[in-house]
Amino acid sequence: MADAARRLTALAEELLGTPFPLRIRAWDGSEDGPPGAPVLSVRHRRALRRFLWCPGELGLARAWVAGELDILGDLYEGMDRLSGLFWERGAGPGGGVRGALGAAAALRDPRTRAAARELVTLAGPGLPPPPPREEARRLRGGPLHSPRRDRRAVSHHYDVGNDFYALVLGPSMVYSCAYWTEGADLEAAQRDKLDLVCRKLALRPGSRLLDVGCGWGALVLHAAREYGVRAVGITLSSEQAAHARKWIAEEGLADRVEIRVQDYREVPDGPYDAIASIGMAEHVGSARYRAYAGVLHGLLRPGGRLLNHQIARRPEPDEEEYRIDAFIDAYVFPDGELAPVGSTVARLEEAGFEVRDVEAIREHYALTLRQWVARLERDWPRAVRMVSPGRARVWRLYMAASALSFERNRIGVNQILAVRTPEGGTSGLPLRPRAWTEA
């Protein structure tokens, strides 16, 4: 077979109903497609067998993670050209793959049986290849978003090695979008984000802060060191907690900061003056979100503030048809869910919060993700040694596609400031609260 690329191009155009926008390089060394375009490298026929046995997004994702598919050249341009075909809204949180699913449906259409036979011929004989080992197995241990199941989901994503996260995130160890100004580098932008959160929460010496989903401890450390607070950080990741405790001890702040491996539903020692939830609520789930907001409301003192920093998806025309992204669920955030920002605001209000400010910062996340991808690619051999080739490929695909999703307004991210306003109605906010952006 010396013309696999030409046959693949024709097959893709038949199934997708549109010219294929990338050049294809096949396992037999052949190439076909627009000159100068990024190259979709199909390195092994197994990639086609994966799609044949598991049509749609998950089959394609397995081929990518296994190293049987890749984009050569400009990764972002290649993925952008595929947008609307394979990754309609980007293979990031809440993304979808209508084109791939449409191609899968076409394989079952009697009118395209010839294309189906061609795919079988190109794929070659064989049983379905086993999924790459990085794929999350079906989570056990309780209903969706029960404490035990949440621990397993968090462990799949976060307990892959602190050194790997340090390579990707940089010294700040902040795993949420930075807050950029002209000329800033990643470290400065992350420091500015942490400081913005502290100012929105009006932290003062002696304030009691709870960080729900504290990660590796950057926010509680910054708040204790720069604002003199007493802080508690909770996480379900034992590896994160170990790193945070060591870091805090090295900074001499162990007497003011406590790190717990604890579920948000198990925090016993409110009230707090302020609560931060930065990039954690995506793990809560829509069915549990009202209860989650109620727990945080109950942990705040009257007049206390909540800063909820959360990725948002765009509303679906029919909300009942929303499906968790198959690639994200299998390889990145098992059981993760995104909600439109309006739904999040409504759930917070139902729990008793007064929502006082919503700041949309999606462009900031696109910039942050591009920096993380650049760090990963720059130190790729070491990243592969730290985790595995498949895990590193998961991260490269996830972060690059997510950057495009933010840039193209397919998903967003918002900081929502809410107050547990006392019965008298005094929120404690200044008349012009956006002054915090000027500090």
TrEMBL record:
Signal peptide: none annotated. One of its GO terms (biological process) is methylation. One of its GO terms (molecular function) is methyltransferase activity. Residues 122-152 are annotated as: Disordered. InterPro entries: CFA/CMAS, CMAS, MeTfrase_dom, SAM-dependent_MTases_sf. Keywords: Lipid metabolism, Methyltransferase, S-adenosyl-L-methionine, Transferase. The keyword Transmembrane helix does not apply. The keyword DNA-binding does not apply. Pfam families: CMAS. Residues 164-422 form the Polyketide synthase-like methyltransferase domain. Belongs to the CFA/CMAS family. This is Class I SAM-dependent methyltransferase.
